[in-house]
Amino acid sequence: MNLFSRIKGQDRAIDILRRALQQDKIAQSYLFHGPEGTGKFTTAFYFAMALNCPETLENRPCGVCNSCRKYLAFSHPDFIYTFPFPNPKSDISEEGEIKSEKDLTEYQDYIKNKRETPWKEFFFSKNTGIRIGSIRLLEHRMSLSPNEGTRKVFLLEDADMMNTQAANSFLKTLEEPPGDAVIILTSSKLNSLLPTIISRCQQIAFQPIERRIIEEVLLERGSEPLPARMFSRIANGNLEKALRLAEQGEFEAREKALEFIRLIVEGDDLKFIDFLQDFRGTKNLNRLQELISHLIIWVADVSCLQHDPDEIVNLDHRELLENLYKLNPQIGQMSYELVEFLEKMNARLGGFVNQQLIMLGIFHKFRESFSR
Questions:
Q1: Which residue segments constitute the domains of the chain, with CATH numbers given?
Q2: Rounded to an integer, what distance in angstroms lies between the CA atom of residue 117 and that of residue 246?
Q3: Residue pLDDT, tens place only, 174-197
Q4: pLDDT of 45 strictly over 90
């Protein structure tokens, strides 16, 4: 069984790549684009492996041959991996050697995370980007002949993070790449790439992963049914996010959402003042975002209560759902507007806004939607 079978929910993208391998019609440059957490990097990595895997076509990439093992260790000499990185404290040699010990440690830690737990978020010590130095190194490596494989494969992760100088230099590389080179870009922000770069690549689109598929993956990894259903909803098509939530056991946000819903049902405005104190300062941004995700689930649950109970996530709080429904039996007709409002509030958190004001706005919207 080849490694492509591990990719979930992206059958169309995998079919395109398999046909390219079978017909030996490999483009010189690809652009894998789509939302975060949908398998772009993993698919690009497996495709890079397949290009130098000596196994039969139906078994590529096999994951067990000498070439594949080197890829999985990120040590294949014909695989060049470039990703957004903090501006190095010292120069990088022409061979790609990082001279600063701190930079090297951070680089190795990122690779280790990518190799062992790629769904986990990795936080660098400084702002990252793809700069001209990385592109010049890539150009140098591209001028060399393959060492062990038949092709040199260059994978640029989050290519939209190239600065202007790097992007313009890379564009020249895309115009006339060597015949034995295959370049693969990944991006979650297609609009941030130069149109001229996009036009020179074969585009492979990735779609948000179906909730059903995410739930199945979580169950296969040992999650209980309730968390699997809940995290698959919150993830919103992002499998990596669902895996992180399942691993961390993100139930704090659920408890805060439960507390909020009880305040709405009880009509206790005074207790809400105490509740609001938990959202002071920028450190609580992620907590508020997760709370909003859970509130969206509660809105969906109460709207499903009468007509589609199998879709309910918070089954263990059915009585509270019924009490919420009694406050507004017409919620099914209003749920779209309420969810849209919550998503708008979530989007506003990306800017410099007062989180308590956001929470206050959400409280007033719920009190208005579920008034006695």
A1: 3-84+130-205 (3.40.50.300), 251-369 (1.20.272)
A2: 13
A3: 988 888 999 999 999 999 999 999
A4: yes
How many residues can be counted in the chain?
372
Distances (CA, A) of 207 to 4, 119, 147, 243: 16, 17, 35, 18
Higher pLDDT, 126 or 160: 160
162 within 8 A of 120, measured Cβ to Cβ: no
**Per-residue pLDDT for 78 more than 70?**
yes
For 6-17, what is each residue's pLDDT tens digit? Answer: 999 999 999 999
Q: Look up residue 313 and give its amino acid.
A: V
Peptide bond into 77 cis (omega under 30): no
280 DSSP assignment: -
Percent of the chain residues topping a pLDDT of 70 = 94
**Distance between CA atoms of residues 153 and 361, nearest Å:** 50
Structure tokens at 97: 């050697």
C-alpha dihedral, 114 to 118 to 123 to 127, nearest 10°: 70
Closest CA to 72 of 107, 20, 112: 112
At CB < 8 A and 24+ separation, what contacts does 75-78 make? 76/52, 76/148, 76/149, 77/147, 77/148, 78/52, 78/146, 78/147, 78/148, 78/149, 78/151, 78/152, 78/153
Q: Which helix (H) or strand (E) holds 154?
A: strand 152-156
Residue 77 has pLDDT above 70, yes or no: yes
Q: How far apart are CA 60 and CA 14, in angstroms?
A: 12
How far apart are alpha carbons 235 and 40 in whole angstroms?
A: 16
Sign of CA dihedral 66, 69, 71, 77: negative
Q: Which of 295, 232, 207 is nearest to 14 (CA)?
A: 207
Mean pLDDT for all residues in the chain: 89
pLDDT digits over 243-267, tens only? 988 887 667 788 889 999 999 998 8
Token representation of residue 42? 């993993």
